[in-house]
Target: Rpn family recombination-promoting nuclease/putative transposase
Amino acid sequence: MNEFLRKKWEMAGLSDDYIFNKVMLDYDICLEVLRRILPDLHIKKIKLPNNQQAFTVAPDAKAVRFDIYTTDEQGNHYDIEMQVADHHNIAKRIRYYQTASSMEAYDKGQPYEQADDSYVIFFCNFDPFQLGQQRYVLHKHIDEIPEQIIEDGQTDILFNVPSLRHDVDPKMQAFLDMIAQREVEATDPLVVKLKERIAVVKRNRKWRSEYMRRSVYEMDQEMREKKIREGERKVRDGKREILEGNRELLEEKRELQKGKREIQKSKREIKEGQDRLKEKEQLIQEREQKLHENQQTIIKTSIVAMRELNIDETTIKKEIKEKFDLSDKEIKDYFAE
Model:
């Protein structure tokens, strides 16, 4: 197991989206968290939480995969997400998740007014709107009358996990403190369950292996995206340089001649470098050949010496094979001479 990934697994807590998902799959934990987020709903029971449920709004639309998805006995829909990194697209991201969740709230043939309510809940390891709030609750309103909320059944709730404002209910604060790995009251029943569930998740070998594979994939993906961004940046820089170069060419033809001379010089330097590289490659090949010949001489001398000491052929072959790391065919060739 890669040491970095092993330590990452051991140190991962609720702020890690994978651990968060596995912990929130626990029915009692998910129910209690929803009760703490939305105490006014008096949620009695929910469907078994679904992990990584996928929805597609339209055949040619981008698919969305929910971290934790469930509904309650009143038909309310809940999507719970853990956002680890700030990609500066949180508003548009919420909009799409809410769209996918809301689509589930409309049954075919059902009047619009009977559509179920939809709640999209984001736990962010950053301030999602950089406004200093610990909790953001989003609804539609009339611009001319901001206090007039449009009751369309959609509610977005975002928590700024690192915030120390303590503007939320103490029970909700305890859950946020658990995510942020801050000191928390050990007697809180949810805290006890969370710690037990995290321990269960950490002991699950299948989940640990899945976490490792996903982490490797994410690192590879991040590296690819980084290279793409770097390539795009270079393209932008290149275009800007071309524009600047064009202006310079129009202003000073002399620079063009200077550039051509520099290009010729660079070509010569490249050619000289290639020639030196070929010389080095040739030298390496000659050295490798010499080493091979030296090894052959040593092996042959060793075989002769051991034969003179009356050592049996089997022992000699074994000794030579292990000492020089030879294949069976190579051993056979040496003893066929």
Observations:
- Residues 249 and 255 are 7 Å apart (CA to CA).
- Residues 58-62 have pLDDT under 50 and may be disordered.
- The radius of gyration is 33 Å.
